[in-house]
Amino acid sequence: MKKVWITTLIWGLVLFFSLTPTASLSASKGLKVFISVDMEGISGVINWEEVSRNGQDYSLFRRLMTEEANAAVEGALAAGATEIVVRDSHGSARNILPDLLHPQAMLIRDWGGSPLSMMEGLDESFDAVIFIGYHARANTPDATLDHTMTGAFYEVTLNGLPMPEAGINAFIAGQFGVPVVLVAGDQAICNQTKELLGEVETVAVKKGIGQAALMLSPQKARALIKEKTTAALKRLSDFKPYKLSPPYTMIITYKDEERANETAWLPGAKRVGPTSVSFTSSDFMDILRFFLFAE
């Protein structure tokens, strides 16, 4: 009887230790989420002065920016995220108010000089990327404060596709194998990211009417961001990293000929039009370095 009991105990322990570690690891492994936050696409923002450090109402809109970031953080936490990095991606990269940011988020402030730029801090360890406060590419009708990186660019294409900042940043995320799951901003950028990425979750917090916009209240915008962030992360397996086939060709078209002339002197760059410069490489970091120095 004692021998049978010991044998049963041993087999029970074998079964326990063969199953428990896997179950324990899957239960304890939370999501790691990267949130890149721009400012022009925040609900309420309509004028360049509102997103400029010297603007009269800048203090109000940086708070609204911080609160929209918090909404995404709260949504991620509700979906089981255990590590959240918020990247301040606008202008000086010193806009989000650290004392008002959700305490369970870590914040990247200022620019470290990396070609990853608005995605600085991202690597393969992340599970998902979220864009908050994003805007449409330069020269988009009925878009709020549309531009691409700097006011110097008329258009940026990558492998023939017109790129907003969200597209370039999704391309960066894809190089690390990380999918973009949610984009919040104006209706125009929501449309553009769906064209590029497919059925990504979007939150349109405003809709351009010429240079004006019809907006959700900040409270409603934040509620939707939180809700849709949670929903997106709960179906994370539905999203795939954004990939393009190498070699990669970026063409930058400037608003004036002088800038094109300067950029054409970069090693590997080629003048392909009066105001357009092309660069091709199979290394995505080469493309990003070109993009950084072309600004």
Round the Cα radius of gyration to an integer and report it.
22 Å
Total E-strand runs? 12
Q: Shape from CA axes? A: globular
Instruction: Work out the helicity level.
Output: 25-40%
| Spatial strand arrangement across the major sheet | 3-2-1-4-7-8-9
Major sheet: 7 strands, mixed
Mean pLDDT: 93
At the fourth CATH level, what is the homologous superfamily of the largest domain?
Dipeptide transport protein
Give the N-to-C terminal Cα separation: 81 Å
Which stretches are low in confidence, meaning pLDDT under 50 for 5 or more residues running? 1-28
Number of domains: 2
Write a structural description.
This protein has 295 residues and is α/β, with parallel strands linked by helices. The protein has two domains: 29-238, Rossmann fold (3-Layer(aba) Sandwich), CATH 3.40.50.10780; 248-294, no CATH class. It is built from seven helices and twelve strands. It has a seven-stranded mixed beta sheet with strand order 3-2-1-4-7-8-9, sandwiched between helices. A five-stranded antiparallel beta sheet has the order 6-5-10-12-11.
Topology overview:
Elements: H1 2-28, E1 31-37, H2 58-78, E2 81-88, E3 105-108, E4 128-134, E5 153-158, E6 161-162, H3 165-175, E7 180-186, H4 187-197, E8 201-209, E9 212-215, H5 218-234, E10 248-254, H6 257-263, E11 270-271, E12 276-281, H7 284-294
Parallel strand pairs: 1-2, 1-4, 2-3, 4-7, 7-8
Antiparallel strand pairs: 5-6, 5-10, 8-9, 10-12, 11-12
Helix pairs in contact: 2-5
